Amino acid sequence: MRTVIYTQRVEVIESYQERRDCADQRIADFICACGFLPIPLPNRAEQAERIIEAVHPAGIILTGGNSLTAYGGNAPERDAMDKALIELAIRYKIPLYGFCRGMQSILAYYGNELVNVEGHVAVRHFVHAGQEDYEVNSYHNQACRELREDCRLMITAQAADGVIEAVRHESLPIVGTMWHPEREETYVQKDIIRVTELFVNADN
User: Fold this and answer.
1) Total domain count, the chain
2) What gap in Å lies between CA 82 and CA 18, rounded to an integer?
3) With helix as H, strand as E and coil as C, how does the chain read?
4) Mind listing the pLDDT tens digit for each residue in 102-146?
C-alpha cells in the first residue's frame, strides 16, 4: 500500500509549556478510505525533505486547523512546514491536496490575499462547480474571493457569496478545497475520487 503524508495542527498547552502536533483521527481514516497508508508529519520544516526522500509518498495532504500567522494564527512552524511541503511537492512532482487551512496555504503561496468572511463556520452550504451544485461543510473564518491573474490557480468551485471553495493548479497536481472531507458522517464519494485520482493518476 502506498503512503500519503499529512500535516497536523499545533496545540499550545501553556500549563506544560508544550507545543503539540495533533490531528483528528478521522483524517487518517479518510486517507485509508482512499486506499493509502496515512503517515502524520511533525511541524518541522527542516525535516520535511528527509521524510519525503525516506517515505516516497504517493501524495501530500495539507490539513485544517490553525489560521495562517499573517491572519492572526499562532503557529509559525506550521506556516513554514506548509510552505516547505508545497515547494517539495513542486520540486519532486508529488501530488498535493490541501483542505481548509491547507487550501489557504496554497492560495497564499501563490500570492493570493485572504479576507475575513462571515457565515462559513460550522455550517453547510452549496457550492457551484462547473454545471453542478452540491452541499459541503464549512469551518473557516478566512477565505479568498478573487484570484490574482498571474497566480496559475483556477477556480473549480465557488459559494453563492463569492467565496472560492476549490482550486486547482493549471498544470501541476495541486488541488485545494475549503471543506473538510474527513468531517462528513459518511465520506462523500466525490471527495474520495478527487484524492484518489489526484494521487493515483498524477505522473509521480
Assistant:
1) 1
2) 21
3) CCEEEECCEEEEEHHHCEEEEECCHHHHHHHHHCCCEEEECCCCHHHHHHHHHHHCCCEEEECCCCCCHHHCCCCHHHHHHHHHHHHHHHHHCCCEEEECHHHHHHHHHCCCCCEECCCCEEEEEEEEECCEEEEEEEECCEECCCCCCCCCEEEEEEECCCCEEEEEECCCCEEEECCCHHHCCCCCHHHHHHHHHHHHHCCC
4) 999 999 999 999 999 999 999 999 999 988 999 999 999 999 999
Active-site residues, by number, are 100, 180, 182
- Does the structure show a pLDDT above 50 at 204? no
Q: What is the CATH number of the domain that holds 121?
A: 3.40.50.880
| 34-71 pLDDT per residue, tens | 999 999 999 999 999 999 999 999 999 999 999 999 99
* Cell reading at 197: 485520482
Structural domain boundaries enclosing 157: 3-201
Nearest Cα to Cα of residue 27 among 40, 44, 15: 40
CA dihedral defined by 25, 21, 51, 72, rounded to 10 degrees?
Answer: 110
